[in-house]
Amino acid sequence: MTKRTAFAADDAIIAAAAAVTSQPGRRFTSYPPARARGGCRLAPAAAARQATDDPGAAGSWPELVVPRHADFDDWMEKHPSALAAFESVLAAAKGKKIVMFLDYDGTLSPIVRDPDSAVMSEEMRDAVRGVAEHFPTAIVSGRCRDKVFNFVKLAELYYAGSHGMDIKGPTAQSKHTKAKAGAVLCQPARAFLPVIEEVYRALTASTAPIPGATVENNKFCLSVHFRCVQEEKWRALEEQVRSVLKEYPDLRLTKGRKVLEIRPSIKWDKGNALQFLLESLGFAGSNSVFPIYIGDDSTDEDAFKVLRNLGQGIGILVSKIPKETRASYSLREPSEVEEFLRKLVSWSKESRQRD
């Protein structure tokens, strides 16, 4: 029997948001959008993406597909290093307020076999702390918000967990804080919590026979990790997951880097979280803001796409290999992310001294 949950209040909000299609060059003039349950406003959502337009579509296996840009030099010409092109980044940001958005896994910490061991270095923490002293800064992760906070341990940041479906303001006041310290700002999928918990139990049981498979409960979404699963068992694992999800049509499946992601089927992703946070910071309708989003996974493409459509800010993909991406720039690994953040801080300090 198919298990469909009624989300009447949320459905009305999502439907209203989905009626608006994002357009290239669009600013924040339509804000404030409809307020969702949990205190957040739903940003205008783009029309449903076709599978061929989604780097995270469930029909392909990331890290197994040969990149379309086989020529690395050609790819780097299209997505130059944000370090090598640092002066170009500064020129684009001149006279504007930088707002920093950072993914966690693969961006601030290395990708590791055990998700619970993805600890960021003290040097990276110091770099992020420095950025937050100069610019409003948010961590946008697929992880549970509380879990990513326990990794980062910086109270002055905004945290958007569960792919942006659980957003909380800083627990420590700073000059960048617009909301009440520690306030939960946005939980558009709160009504899905019971079904997420039910599916978590079902997936944990159904994937138990597959060695190396782990199911992570990220509160508003689930992650089935297969980095430690033998490659010949990947398809069997996906079949087990799909078998469970057949009973839950209100959930959708996407793929990331050695992970299957299960999320509520609502028009909300990291791109929506980026727009919501910009509004929360007081940049609704502003042309003087310069968002910088750094991420490594297919789910970060939603944020890169928003920046492209807005015609504001830049996306930076963290990757050692050519990938199809909407990001403008690239960095190879977390160590380069740290270097980029430190260069931004140094530039900001020098600018203040000149002023």
Automatic annotation (TrEMBL):
Sample GO molecular function, one term: trehalose-phosphatase activity
Annotated coiled-coil segments of the chain: none
Gene transcribed to yield this protein: SRA
Stated role: Removes the phosphate from trehalose 6-phosphate to produce free trehalose.
Lineage, uppermost ranks: Eukaryota, Viridiplantae, Streptophyta, Embryophyta, Tracheophyta
Keywords: Hydrolase
Name under which the protein is recorded: Trehalose 6-phosphate phosphatase
Native source species: Zea mays (Maize)
GO biological process, one term: trehalose biosynthetic process
Cofactor: a divalent metal cation
Family the UniProt entry places it in: Belongs to the trehalose phosphatase family.
InterPro entries the UniProt entry points to: HAD-like_sf, HAD-SF_hydro_IIB, HAD_sf, OTSB-like, Trehalose_PPase
